[in-house]
Amino acid sequence: MSFHDFLTTIGLDPAILGAGAAGGLLRSLSRKRFKVREVFLSPVCGTLAAGYLTPWAVHIVRYYGWPPMPTDASAVYAMAFLIGTIAMWISDLVFEAIVRRIKGDAPPSELP
Question: Residues 61, 79: contact at Cβ < 8 Å?
């Protein structure tokens, strides 16, 4: 059994995982402060986010019908790429808020 077959067996589409990894890599390379650790961890986190959130997001978008989504797979892969990128930006905001709260730099009411 190949790795591709294994991922398909457990319900993960390897193309969606690749799109999420690319989104995470884009996020890590687009930061002002370039950290080597983030270059390796961001694609992993983007992959996880895209792998688990993309099927759910596609279902929601198709259920409500807005925006109109084409039926081909390219729209699903584009959504996986965006989820991989956006999930990393959201995690940055959350972790920065946690660090500020722990360090006591800002009162909890002033956090975003």
Answer: yes
3-class state of residue 42 by DSSP: helix
The CA distance from 68 to 88, in Å, is: 26
pLDDT in tens, 59-95: 898 888 877 777 778 889 999 999 999 888 888 788 8
Whole-number Å distance between alpha carbons of 43 and 27: 9
Q: How far apart are CA 95 and CA 10, in angstroms?
A: 30
CA–CA distance, 14 with 4 (Å, rounded to integer) = 7
pLDDT category of residue 34 using cuts at 50, 70 and 90: confident
Q: Based on the number of CB atoms within 10 Å of its own CB, is 92 exposed (0-12), middle (13-18) or buried (19 or more)?
A: middle
Q: Provide the residue type at 60 as one letter.
A: I
62 close to 69: Cβ distance less than 8 angstroms: yes
Supply the pTM of this predicted model.
0.76
Helix axes 36-64, 73-103, angle to 10 degrees: 120
